[in-house]
Design a protein that fits this description.
The complex is a heterodimer. By secondary structure, chain A is α/β, with parallel strands linked by helices. Chain A has 5 domains: 108 residues, Glutaredoxin, CATH 3.40.30; 205 residues, NADH-ubiquinone oxidoreductase 51kDa subunit (Rossmann fold); 84 residues, Roll (Ubiquitin-like (UB roll)), CATH 3.10.20.600; 88 residues, NADH-ubiquinone oxidoreductase 51kDa subunit, iron-sulphur binding domain (de novo design (two linked rop proteins), Up-down Bundle), CATH 1.20.1440.230; 56 residues, 2-Layer Sandwich (Alpha-Beta Plaits), CATH 3.30.70.20. Chain A has 24 helices and 19 strands. Chain A has a 5-stranded mixed β-sheet with strand order 12-11-15-13-14. The longest helix of chain A has 18 residues. Chain B is an alpha+beta fold. Chain B has 7 helices and 5 strands. In chain B, α1 runs antiparallel to α2 and α3 crosses α4. Classes of the chains: A alpha/beta, B alpha+beta. At the A-B interface, α1, β11, β15 and α17 of A face α2, α4, α5 and β5 of B.
Chain lengths: 597, 163
Amino acid sequence: MNRYRMHLMVCGGTGCRSSHSVQIVEALNQELKRAGMDQEVQVVTTGCFGFCEKGPIVKVYPDNVFYIEVKPTDAAELVAEHVVKGRTVQRLVYKDPAGGQRIAASTDMPFYGQQIRIALRNCGLIDPESIDEYISVDGYQALGKALSSMTQQQVVDALKKSGLRGRGGAGFPTGLKWQAALKTRSDKKYVVCNADEGDPGAFMDRSVLEGDPHSVVEAMAIAGYAIGADEGVVYVRAEYPLAVKRLKIAIAQAEEYGLLGAGILGTAFSFRIRLSLGAGAFVCGEETALLNSVEGGRGEPRMKPPFPAEKGLFGKPTVINNVETFANVCPILLNGPEWFASIGTEKSKGTKVFALSGKINNVGLAEVPMGITLREIIENIGGGVRNGRAFKAVQTGGPSGGCIPKSMLDLPIDYESLAAAGAMMGSGGMIVMDDTDCMVNIAKYYLDFTVDESCGKCTPCRVGNKRLFEILQRITDGKGTMKDLEDLETLGGTIRDCSLCQLGQTAPNPVLSTLKHFRDEYLAHVVEKRCPSGVCQNLIHYRVVAEKCIGCTVCARNCPVSCIAGERKSPHVIDEDKCIKCGVCFTKCPVDAIVKE
Amino acid sequence: MSSTATTQTRFEELDRYIDALPDRKGALIQVLHVAQDLFGYLPQDVQMHVARRLNIPAAKVFGVVTFYSFFNTEPRGQFTISVCLGTACFVRGSEDVLKEFEKQLRIGRDQTTADNLITLTTIRCVGACGLAPVVMVNDRVYGRVSAKDVASIIDDCMAQGGK
């Protein structure tokens, strides 16, 4: 390996690639060559840094300077100033919105200040397509330790002692899963990685797969050793082509180095991993539906019990863990379960990666210790609500989760507290909503999603959710009644109690949680026939404020249905019967004389 | 896609893939992925062929094809414009973007323009939430799209069309 005095780490995650990070790498290489420095300074394409809002990101080692919103045309200046002269390019450095000062080191930025990176430890640090770089950061050491100095039971015990729980949603203790699979006798066992990250607004698994695929490969091999499996399957979304590509590279490299295959590291242990591509069905994130899909069938869930640890893939004992769960395994074995258990709360140990998105200033991935409050995540790390608007709710857990109101922002986050609030940890998506978002409409949005993605196997989910959606449609159309609100609660409860799988059981959560925390908005829709956020088209009205109107006729000339009348230089009037509520007049009025109510 | 000769080579290539499979057990979805890559979509004769070659009922193949949103039984345009309706994009106005595409292309969701150039569809989260709202054209991601950008995205497709 060449030795370089400086490394320019360029984010190669999906987000930054879409903003031309590939061209930045090309441009930097060209400029380095021109300056005669390409033997001294190396450009590395890394995984996601997490601060997607400010991408594309270029980080300089060892100087620890974090450049944001870099363009390919900035390459010349970065090389001439930073690389050659050693001067930081101030205009590309993060500017603290509070104080206005420039912060060059990522560790000093509020976004990274409270983060502890375990699952994301290598994202942004190494080239995900190089096994050598992974090995240089203690990669495959945990596998070596397990194979050379731990029994199967000792590995399982370490997981149990660490308190690690499933990061994909339900939070089942990982060690117990492994224990059950170890205990079950069988000629064949499987390890499956659930990389079917389908929750809208959650992208941590994608980042791990794209930024550090070897950490998942290594952890799967450890799981294989622990339970006595010789085959692993990664079920990954076809929507993540880059993650698929990097996983394939990682598996091929591990095979080449003898870290996968027969007789790993000179022991009798053999383990192979293959990929299985999803085909766009949200329900396949449910573990038994996923197994059916890997077997080549429709992704419909199975009855539990028997649990997959007893009868899983092709009827054989199977351990299924999510990507982020696997990403935590190697550090636990290397640093000891006590270290991991010292982070977090009593029942939820370690860290959790949250994907912040929606109406928040800093969209991105943040890995924080369990027990941190929602307020700390949203205000400190997330930088507060966008465009200075008022915070209304944060939605956690995707279509299975719920909306948490402002009054509960000081809630310390763990599996239990979120469930008690009517939401769910889920995969860790956190979507922030402001005062322009209508909570009834958001509930309807999620139900639309569930209706679309329900596999149709059991009636409560297939039919019940459709009815829930229709009731919400009525309410947003202004045709709702008080009886509808009662029906939402009763029907929601029935679906929750009677559905076969988690998708159905949790589908009413967005409705029930908004009904609980934002009942006033439902009442406004039903009783006053009014949408307080001005979202539901059938419930909004545009009106010209006569005192403000200057009679410029801009509104009348732009109205697509000619429903605005009035003489020049005198107040105009909107004909409500003809108005299609397109909002053109509202946006075009030069003196803000048109109000939406 | 119309010429018989090329159709035949596509079937031959599909057969080569199936023959090379180490284990046909559970391979249906992976085979369908390959078939759709080759043919662009999964018409009935391709489904029948897969069923025969894997020795499973055609009904099962049809059941799987229609279950997963990734598989199409109708041909698609040269460009598939997918508007993300994931929550992050939704709260940042992706519905307006979708409406604008529908208006300018004069087609609805999951429909294809008469010249077979563009298919309009929706997706649920590509995980590029930092760029919300996101539109994908084939494999290319356009970020922070507003209704104003719709015309230029369509123009890009028209300019590259037929190549």
